[in-house]
Amino acid sequence: MRAAVLREGTVEFGVVDDPVPGPGQLLVRSLACGICASDLHYMDNPDAGIDDDSGMSTYDQNVDIVMGHEYCAEVVDYGPGTDRRIPVGTRVSSLPVLATPMGRKIIGQNPESPGGFGEFLLLDESITRVVRSDLPSEVICVADALSVGWSAAARAQMGTREVPLVIGCGAIGLSTIANLKRLGIGPIIAVDFIASRRETAMAMGADAVIDPAEISPYQAWRDVAHGSPDTTKDMMAIAALPGCVIFECVGIPGVLDSIVKGCERGTRIFSSGGPPEGDHLHTLTAKRKGLNIQFGGGPLPAHWDDAFHAVCSGEVDISPMLGRTVGLHEVAEALDASRDANGPARIVVVPGKE
């Protein structure tokens, strides 16, 4: 099959063997696949998973790897032992995890689990979902990106006396905002250095946007959540003030630590960023402030299904997140373009595009 192939840290157009479906697997044709920041993290940091003994993500620089884990695809064939409940030709998507004899693998992050930057890939039939929508595949494929922030917002279970602060308005931050808005939580305060991203955050449901070059995000949060500075002078009044829930959606070293040092006492932090090179945290400061930090972990399956349904049904309009589409010959250039924070949240690869 034709594919954008990662080898020795670079991506080039090439031809690799077609994947063969094993027990319980489907062979599908990739119709559209979003480029995610984690694709860049994966290819740029081959040693990032060296301490991860799960085997879900491996990177052998001397072996061809086809990335891409945000896909909409079409069923082509069945492996042995499948129920064949989904007819050939049906559009589908799934959580990007493949069950193999060697254990579970992240699709697009192993040689044996190729992703959507090629003509064909394999899916686990048991978790494959049918696309019940007339929306284009370029829209449907973004559901996986939506599910990450969607899951963080759902897991936060925010109360009526809490005000959210979303730091970073890439795809994860935008999807967090979208679900917070759907859940009726607000006011939603979003933070990003890039003007275009702040505009997109407003389109996705933010109530206020902050440029951290102009004002501290934490002071901006206090201005919105607490109002007059007089309310913080009395201890009883402080106890009745809204609590802070911060969603860290950046993934650059130092950001989470800056949150620890700058946020309110008792803040709950949901960290979805996760820089691959790791980070340093002032844990003593976190202890003194009584902070609660929840690290990502990926979307829960139920939350992935909810986000997928929200996209397919049109309940959430993700068009503000979308940029251009590219063919397989253009993937290397598009990956570089995805590094530009001024660009759209998603560039989408369409393998059939010439």
Automatic annotation (TrEMBL):
<feature type="domain" description="Alcohol dehydrogenase-like C-terminal">
    <location>
        <begin position="171"/>
        <end position="293"/>
    </location>
</feature>
<dbReference type="Pfam" id="PF08240">
    <property type="entry name" value="ADH_N"/>
</dbReference>
<keyword id="KW-0560">Oxidoreductase</keyword>
<protein>
    <submittedName>
        <fullName>Zinc-binding dehydrogenase</fullName>
    </submittedName>
</protein>
<dbReference type="InterPro" id="IPR011032">
    <property type="entry name" value="GroES-like_sf"/>
</dbReference>
<dbReference type="InterPro" id="IPR013149">
    <property type="entry name" value="ADH-like_C"/>
</dbReference>
<dbReference type="Pfam" id="PF00107">
    <property type="entry name" value="ADH_zinc_N"/>
</dbReference>
<feature type="domain" description="Alcohol dehydrogenase-like N-terminal">
    <location>
        <begin position="22"/>
        <end position="126"/>
    </location>
</feature>
<dbReference type="InterPro" id="IPR013154">
    <property type="entry name" value="ADH-like_N"/>
</dbReference>
<dbReference type="InterPro" id="IPR036291">
    <property type="entry name" value="NAD(P)-bd_dom_sf"/>
</dbReference>
